[in-house]
Design brief:
The protein has about 220 residues and is an alpha+beta fold. It has 2 domains: about 55 residues, SH3 type barrels, CATH 2.30.30; about 110 residues, Kinesin motor domain (Kinesin). It has a 4-stranded antiparallel sheet with strand order 2-3-4-5. It is elongated and about 70 Å long.
């Protein structure tokens, strides 16, 4: 975040936008203790008809929408490469606009998974991607998590390792809106668990039974 004041002039920040939700802008003038004048800045290679447009915003409203701790703070822009970051906890400035921008960049490159600490966020690409080959099953079980791209296999491997090491039952929570890809994600992780545990045919049968029970369970509420 950047505290709103004379020293923040020229800083690149995110401001609310009716279409893009958040838009990159540059602070050009402090109008009062709570009002700021900004100039929209193009955030891509495509033509932006609003590039250079000047707008006035209430700093308090921006801080509230972005989830900033201080009511006098504005969400400052991070510097991103083409794929954003693999773990959003590594962002220098973590707020709602930074989260959405990271997921947007990765989704555009057909990279559906992003970590936030121990959480794996999935954005449904609505197409099958070649990210689930059996060659990867034991990579996520044996290699350090940071050496591999974000993936549900990392979560199922962690649960399997902890269950064997600690002897305690493990749970993986998969949540999301309807159509987000929860059922497919559960199937991906269960197939992975069946393979790395040596479940064989019996493991596949259990997976099939669990997945077929989903419609019944969802009838009681998703």
């Amino acid at each position: 975040m950047t505290e709103f004041g004379d020293k923040s002039m020229g800083a690149l920040v995110w401001v609310p936008h009716a279409v893009e939700v958040w838009k990159k802008a540059q602070i050009i003038q402090k109008l009062s203790e709570t009002q700021v004048e900004v100039r929209f800045v193009s955030d891509g290679v495509e033509y932006d008809p609003e590039d250079g447009k000047i707008m006035t915003y209430d700093v308090r409203e921006i801080a509230k929408l972005a989830g900033e701790v201080s009511s006098n703070a504005m969400p400052i822009c991070n510097t991103f490469d083409k794929l954003g970051v693999e773990d959003m906890c590594t962002l220098n400035h973590l707020h709602e606009p930074a989260v959405l921008k990271t997921l947007q960049l990765r989704h555009a490159q057909f990279v559906p998974y992003t970590y936030t600490g121990q959480i794996c966020i999935a954005v449904n690409p609505y197409k099958w991607l070649d990210l689930y080959s059996k060659d990867l099953y034991f990579d996520y079980l044996n290699l350090p998590r940071n050496d591999l791209a974000p993936h549900p296999f990392a979560l199922s491997s962690s649960a399997y390792i902890d269950m064997n090491k600690l002897g305690i039952e493990q749970s993986i929570l998969v949540s999301g809106e309807s159509g987000a890809g929860k059922t497919e994600t559960v199937k991906i992780m269960m197939n992975h668990l069946a393979s790395i545990s040596g479940g064989g045919t019996h493991g596949s049968l259990v997976i099939d039974q669990v997945l077929k029970s989903n419609p019944l369970l969802e009838a009681f509420g998703n």
